[in-house]
Amino acid sequence: MKEIINSLKGDKVIWAFVALLALFSFMPVFSASSNLAYMRHGSGNALTYLIKHAVHIFIGFLIIYQIHKIPYHYLRGISIVFLPLIWLLLVYTLVKGTVIEGANASRWLQIPFIGISFQTSTLAAIVLYVYVARYLSKSREIPPSFKASFFELWIPVFITLILILPANFSTAALIFAMVIMLSFIGKYPIKYIGVILGAGLVSLLFFILVVKAFPGAFPNRVQTWEKRMGNFFNKNEEGKNSDEYYQIERAKTAIATGGLYGLGPGKSVQKNFLPQSSSDFIFAIIVEEYGLFGALTILGLYMLLLFRFIIAAHKASTLFGKLVVVGLGFPIVFQALINMGVAVELLPVTGQTLPLISSGGSSIWMTCVAIGIILSVTKKDEEIAQEIAEKEKREEALRKLIDQQLKEDEEQENSSLSEDDSYSIVEQ
């Protein structure tokens, strides 16, 4: 075990927080999955789901380990090559994607021969964040005009968002917000950011009008958004009969039941009524079983992880490394906050999972890809710091050697002078 830990490079604190979140996930996933086991198999035995989750976590850590060994500066070229491929995947997902667990839009692709499905928008977000970081780090050397940056930066961003928006509005909105934040941190001109925000709002309104005019093109999408927003802001009788209202009410009941210390591990009652108890609403199950103490612990871990991402970004030796850490690290924490906000009805239902805790292979693996890249940045910084330290040690050793040689030469010279003086006295 000690050899394995020593082989892990990069920020050890990030490794520790990720491991803590992953280890904690086993208990709520095992408890919440009993509802799925009962509905799908009639036995209520969630051991199969626990083993499946353990496999997902194990593969996730293998992904982190393999990716963190890759020099992160390779991602500059990879992001350019991968972005068109991501667009093709998103188009194929819209046309031929599968629907999972009641979603009314195609968001997943089925991997042939393996039987595993993954959400292409999560992979698209990672590639896009790296692409934006690459452009912003390059543009700091030569400040771009708005026209040049619009075609090189914002056209690829809008193409990606347009391909995600019809099936997953919340993910598209999160990606757009993170890109704007990344642009601000990368010191992209604020006046240009204002123009882009206006263009994004106009594009969204235009898309809504198109869907309204041609409802057969994207069935149920705008109606779903309107329904969720209406249920959140205006609780009418029609809204109270919706699935979203039912899930939120069950989640709030679970949170209210949890109290300060919770009902205890595996003793959740609402897991039997929440359809997404092991994924979208797992935070409610955590609060019910572990109380306010458990909720604050999970929130604290994410906040500490965010703080560590900030430290890693500050320590990064290149602007590209700083932007990569921010672009990939901050969305993980913000997604967690969105998931918690939905559970306590601070936000409308979005379908965002709790990173590293919710069940689901592709969501865990994509989070692990992002963390692996972040650790690759911190690993490079550690290597640079180690090289500097070794160089200083060599220089110090060389200085000592030179000082010792000078001292010996001085002593030898003084000895020679003393002998000469003695010889002169004898001659006299």
From TrEMBL:
It comes from Flavobacterium aciduliphilum. This is Probable peptidoglycan glycosyltransferase FtsW. GO terms for biological process: cell division; peptidoglycan biosynthetic process; regulation of cell shape. GO terms for cellular component: cell division site; plasma membrane. It catalyses: [GlcNAc-(1->4)-Mur2Ac(oyl-L-Ala-gamma-D-Glu-L-Lys-D-Ala-D-Ala)](n)-di-trans,octa-cis-undecaprenyl diphosphate + beta-D-GlcNAc-(1->4)-Mur2Ac(oyl-L-Ala-gamma-D-Glu-L-Lys-D-Ala-D-Ala)-di-trans,octa-cis-undecaprenyl diphosphate = [GlcNAc-(1->4)-Mur2Ac(oyl-L-Ala-gamma-D-Glu-L-Lys-D-Ala-D-Ala)](n+1)-di-trans,octa-cis-undecaprenyl diphosphate + di-trans,octa-cis-undecaprenyl diphosphate + H(+). Residues 408-422 have a biased composition (Acidic residues). Pfam families: FTSW_RODA_SPOVE. PANTHER family: CELL CYCLE PROTEIN, PEPTIDOGLYCAN GLYCOSYLTRANSFERASE FTSW-RELATED. Belongs to the SEDS family. FtsW subfamily. Keywords: Cell cycle, Cell division, Cell shape, Glycosyltransferase, Membrane, Peptidoglycan synthesis, Transferase, Transmembrane, Transmembrane helix. Residues 405-428 are annotated as: Disordered.
